[in-house]
Specification:
The chain is an alpha/beta fold. The protein is built from six helices and eleven strands.
């Protein structure tokens, strides 16, 4: 299924240029040793059904950016026509460069670089850096208000005085997953359900302040 096969519930038509298909390319940058170990421990690929749950509420676009891409699992699940991946861990970035849904792969720290142009940013950012990723995604979107941002996060992202200003200034539409995602293998080898409730935070043109259970 391609990114053109689903609809959204608001006007999201874009005047997009149709470029010639690109070969996957890996763009290297300087390594960041102090975050490499954390990234390895905080790598939990997004299950496809979690992406499928939010897909009906996303626009039909061509260029999709994932700034915490891993091996490109999320771009694969959404069926990105022109996926753009940023990944800190070089081994995973190399794997993503072989993924047909990743047309460009940037090997580096997404929080320390300018993000490339795209129509949709969708991400499951590392839990320990979720707020930083969300704030950068919101700033990226403000460069072009037609852009859409969708971030998967623990529902607790809505809590605390520390995050009050974020949610007041840039309110998202909140889509709560009724079933807790299974991100990791359990002791029996099967995928285990994490003991946390997750949600998609969605920033769209004219959106904000709505919520729904998926």
């Amino acid at each position: 299924m391609s990114a053109k096969d689903y609809d959204c519930d608001y006007d999201c038509e874009r005047d997009l240029a149709v470029d010639a298909p690109l070969e996957p390319v890996l763009v290297a940058s300087e390594p960041v040793p102090d975050r490499v170990e954390r990234q390895k421990l905080d790598y939990y690929p997004t299950p496809p059904y979690v992406v499928h749950a939010i897909r009906p509420y996303l626009p039909r676009v061509r260029r999709v950016l994932d700034p915490a891409a891993g091996k490109g699992e999320l771009l694969t699940a959404i069926g990105a026509e022109h996926g753009i991946a940023i990944e800190l861990d070089r081994s995973r970035a190399l794997e993503a460069s072989k993924n047909p849904y990743c047309k460009a792969v940037y090997d580096g720290d997404a929080l320390a670089m300018d993000w490339p142009d795209a129509d949709l940013c969708i991400a499951n950012p590392p839990f320990l850096k979720a707020r930083e990723f969300i704030e950068k995604a919101i700033a990226w979107r403000k460069q072009d208000p037609r852009r859409v941002v969708a971030c998967l996060a623990r529902l607790t992202i809505l809590e605390s005085e520390e995050r009050r200003t974020l949610h007041q200034q840039d309110p998202a539409d909140v889509y709560i997953l009724a079933t807790r995602p299974k991100f990791r293998p359990g002791k029996n080898g099967k995928m285990a359900t994490d003991s946390v409730t997750c949600c998609w935070l969605l920033w769209t043109p004219g959106g904000g302040g709505r919520w729904r259970v998926l």
